[in-house]
Design a protein that fits this description.
Length: 344
């Protein structure tokens, strides 16, 4: 049976009987994991397998494993990876070294994830931060110019794909100018269309070929003063036409504080605007059921994009983890950045 157009979370480290029943009946396209779902490698592997068994398909499993402040998997079982800004500093000193480091870091992350049955990483962040913006992006960004951000984000995406893990570029069409954290509040950006086009949108254009993308819960008043990007048909046209993104477009988490209305209303609004898939993260079964009730079967153009993305889940050739870890460490030590080493 065809999956439904949503990605769900879970409450804990194992499937409850209620969750198993929900997954079997609702057939979400994917699962996203958070720290509450992660204990040990063996446990995560069992959980991802149990999810796929419940939905009856080789469905994608996602996680936010950026490095820096945003890592759902960490010590003692998994390495600590540098922030995007660390790669950006190295890039400023030596462009090729920065690109190589970003690719190698992502390739190592892919190896960690694929061993657990996780095959989608919500990386790279292609937002371009500006002075005075909320620190929610901050060092998660590769830099403050669109060319630098696009180049390093592209290198990270390539590293993931080489490891058989799909990248999710975020947050379309840009979260770097937001003056508030969209986890808590709805940011409103008043920049002109020309400024947005030349800075924020410009970072995403070179990445428009990537298979998966995530929207920003941000209002761009010059485009649509009445709705954030996630629920704005106007902004979706910018993403598809001006930026040129043709991959599967998912929402950021619809349970975040930036959005208003019930979970069901948020879900309907996102689909109406043009999102292919709705992402719901907090593991509340009642909310998961509300999303599922409004999510259509993943078919048509959305189904085509989903199928095209999943065909890319193939690792490329042999991979010596320890050798690559040493190469990355050497690059980062040359940069001399505090806290930049990849450690386990």
């Amino acid at each position: 049976m065809m999956p439904r157009a949503f990605i769900t979370g879970l409450t804990g480290a194992t499937l409850t009987a209620e969750e198993r029943s929900f997954l079997r009946d609702a057939r979400p396209w994917g699962l996203i994991l958070f720290k509450r779902n992660v204990e040990t490698p063996a446990q995560v592997s069992v959980l991802t397998a149990a999810f796929r068994d419940a939905v009856g398909a080789d469905a994608p499993v996602l996680v936010d494993q950026e490095g820096g402040r945003v890592q759902r998997l960490g010590p003692p079982h998994w390495a600590v990876y540098p922030s995007a800004a660390t790669y950006g500093r190295l890039y400023d000193r030596d462009r090729e070294a920065g690109l190589s480091a970003a690719r190698l870091g992502a390739r190592l992350i892919a190896a960690d994830l694929l061993a657990l049955g996780i095959d989608v990483d919500c990386l790279p962040v292609a937002d371009v931060p500006v002075a005075g913006a909320s620190p929610v992006i901050g060092d998660r960004a590769y830099g403050d110019t669109p060319a630098k951000v696009a180049n390093l984000a592209g290198a990270a995406a390539a590293g993931l794909l080489e490891g058989g893990v799909l990248p999710v570029v975020k947050h379309l069409p840009g979260h770097g100018r937001a003056g508030a954290d969209s986890h808590e509040f709805l940011p409103v950006v008043d920049a002109t269309i020309d400024v947005l086009d030349q800075a924020d949108f410009a970072a995403f254009r070179p990445l428009a070929h990537l298979p998966l993308g995530m929207t920003a819960h941000v209002v761009f008043s010059a485009l649509d003063a009445g709705a954030p990007a996630t629920t704005s048909a106007v902004v979706h046209r910018v993403i598809r036409e001006s930026i040129g993104f043709d991959g599967l477009l998912m929402t950021d988490d619809v349970s975040m504080g930036a959005l208003s209305g019930s979970i069901g209303e948020r879900t309907v609004a996102a689909f109406k605007a043009g999102c292919d898939v709705v992402l719901h993260c907090n593991g509340s079964l009642d909310e998961m059921q509300a999303v599922a009730a409004e999510a259509p079967v993943l078919a048509g153009e959305a189904g085509r994009r989903a199928a095209a993305a999943l065909r890319l889940r193939q690792a490329m050739g042999d991979f010596d983890v320890e050798s690559v870890r040493s190469r990355l460490a050497a690059l980062l030590e040359c940069d001399g950045a505090t806290g930049a080493r990849v450690t386990s």
